[in-house]
Design goal:
By secondary structure, the chain is mainly beta. Strands 7-8-9-10-11-14-15-16-17-18-19-20 form a 12-stranded antiparallel β-barrel. Strands 1-2 form a two-stranded antiparallel ribbon. Strands 3-4 form a two-stranded parallel ribbon. 12% of the residues lie in helices and 41% in strands. The longest helix is centred in the N-terminal third of the chain and has 22 residues. The chain folds into 3 domains: 92 residues, no CATH class; 87 residues, no CATH class; 266 residues, Outer membrane phospholipase (ompla), Chain C (Beta Barrel), CATH 2.40.230. Strand 3, helix 5 and strand 4 form a beta-alpha-beta unit.
């Protein structure tokens, strides 16, 4: 009895050894021929399929009935026997054949051989930065037979996934990339194939480069942390029209110019996820000629210096405890038409607002949509008029004072969206109230980028002021509106 048990254990060990040997070949799907038996190693299958021998009766029965039910189990060369020569149960000790999974996509999970070679930096694809290999599922193919067409999608998805993984590896582990294609001791050979129509032959020649045209080694990349992101936008737009004095319809020549400068600096959220700090400085200047003004050759239609800053500490998810500040004034003097009387000047008026509350920030994964909301239940607002030639009353300041302080609440909403590859939309809404007087500004800008240096902008500004002076006995004097359409040069510098 003991001898029989040992014989059974010996047979079982032999079968396991054969299975492990077949599964550890050069490839996961290599086949081994052992004594007339084929043992193929695949993935996660352990189904036992005994080898059968086809006879005449079997072939005849296959034509009449289901062939799977007519399989005849015939002992093979791998059948084991005990000490007495009795055959053992082939279900447990017979030859095992590992069957491949019919639903397995081999190309989807097999690793290329380059993954086991030293890493070589070839290029960097900026479109893949910050993305995740989410293309594991092939695209749906519509057609009469999608199974015969989806191989192309699988190939594209596989190559894309390999690029994503390799680039992510280089970014996370730059110290493990020892080679650079530009600094390799010997560049790989390149060949060019040309067809000779006269002889109908294909000539293969080696492509060589001129040594003088070869560039030196690539400079080392700066892999240090960038804590601050800077962005600068500048544009100069203008419109012009010339009309001769004898034009049959009349009219006057005009020239308008608009200067826009903006500088933004913010804390890099990738390294400071619990903090937000952002400062935005912008300046707008609009000048147009004044043919109807007998005193001045030009008028100022837009003059605004505005500084916005925000500091926040994360409370939960996208909400932050925040402190916001806003300051705005103008830089140049502005006069009334046909008069030397000042209308406004530097710090006349000037406005400072500081608020404490909560902030909400949202941006999609692509970075094409950004939304921010600042809600400040406690807010301090100060208006000033420092020029002695101006009356502070016209700016809502009491007679005999140069400043006025107000306490209340404010809210600020900003929205940025990239409508198309060359169309951007920016919107900002700011409102303040001391529960007696309310004021609000809604600024909208649509930018059409023609190319890198030319753009068209549409600017619309709607303002509400509850204590505004009545204008020519109108009922809408509390509402003010300004719109500008311009085209001109633009430039952007970004370290974002």
């Amino acid at each position: 009895m003991l001898q029989r048990i040992l014989t059974r254990l010996t047979g079982l060990a032999a079968c396991i050894a054969v299975t492990m040997t077949s599964a550890s070949g050069q490839s996961l799907f290599d086949e081994m021929i052992l004594d007339g038996e084929t043992v193929s190693a695949s993935a996660d299958t352990t189904t036992v399929k005994p080898v059968v021998k086809e006879t005449r009766s079997t072939r005849q029965g296959r034509q009449r009935r289901n062939p799977r039910k007519q399989v005849e189990k015939v002992p093979s060369l791998w059948d084991l026997t005990d000490a007495n020569g009795m055959p053992l149960d082939s279900t447990y000790y017979g030859p095992q054949e590992l069957l491949p999974d019919p639903y397995m996509d081999v190309d989807a999970w097999m690793m290329p051989r380059s993954f086991y070679m030293p890493a070589v930096f070839i290029s960097y694809d900026g479109t893949l930065a910050g993305k995740v290999a989410a293309e594991d599922n092939p695209l749906a193919i519509e057609g009469p037979d999608p199974e015969k067409m989806n191989w192309a999608d699988k190939t594209v998805i596989r190559d894309r996934r390999q690029q994503l993984r390799f680039q992510q590896f280089m970014i996370e582990h730059p110290e493990l990339v020892p080679y650079n294609l530009e600094s390799m001791p010997r560049a790989p050979k390149e060949f060019v194939m040309t067809v000779d129509p006269s002889t109908a032959k294909i000539n293969v020649t080696e492509f060589t480069r001129d040594v003088k045209e070869m560039t030196g080694t690539a400079p080392k990349l700066n892999l240090g942390r960038i804590n601050w992101l800077h962005t600068f936008d500048g544009s100069l737009h203008f419109s012009q029209a010339y009309i001769s004095p004898n034009w049959y319809q009349g009219g006057k020549s005009n020239l308008n110019g608009i200067l826009f400068l903006q500088y933004n600096v913010k804390l890099n959220e990738a390294f400071h996820k619990n903090l937000i700090f952002e400062t935005n400085v912008q300046y707008k200047l609009g000048v147009n000629n004044a043919p109807d003004d007998t005193v001045h050759a030009y008028n100022i239609s837009e003059d605004l210096l505005q500084i916005n800053t925000k500091f926040g500490l994360r409370a939960w998810k996208r909400w932050y405890y925040s402190v916001t500040g806003q300051f705005k004034t103008q830089l140049l003097n502005n006069y009334q038409i046909n008069s030397d009387k000042l209308r406004s000047a530097f710090l006349s008026p000037g406005e400072l607002n500081v608020g404490v509350g909560m902030s909400y920030n949202y941006s999609n994964r692509k970075g094409t949509v950004n939304f921010a909301a600042n809600i400040n239940p406690l807010s301090y607002n100060m208006k000033m008029c420092t020029n002695d030639k101006l009356n502070p009353v016209s700016f809502g300041i009491e007679e005999g004072h140069k400043t006025i302080s107000q306490y209340g609440s404010n809210v600020e909403l900003t929205f940025k969206a990239k409508l198309a590859w060359n169309i951007e939309y920016n919107s900002r809404l700011f409102a303040f109230t001391n529960y007696e007087v309310s004021q609000g500004d809604w600024e909208n800008t649509i930018t059409f980028n023609i190319n890198k240096y030319l753009s068209t902008k549409i600017f619309a500004h709607l303002r509400y002021q509850s204590d505004a002076n009545r204008f020519e006995e109108t009922h809408w004097h509390k509402w003010q509106f300004k719109e500008i359409l311009s085209i001109g040069f633009s430039y952007r510098f970004s370290r974002a």
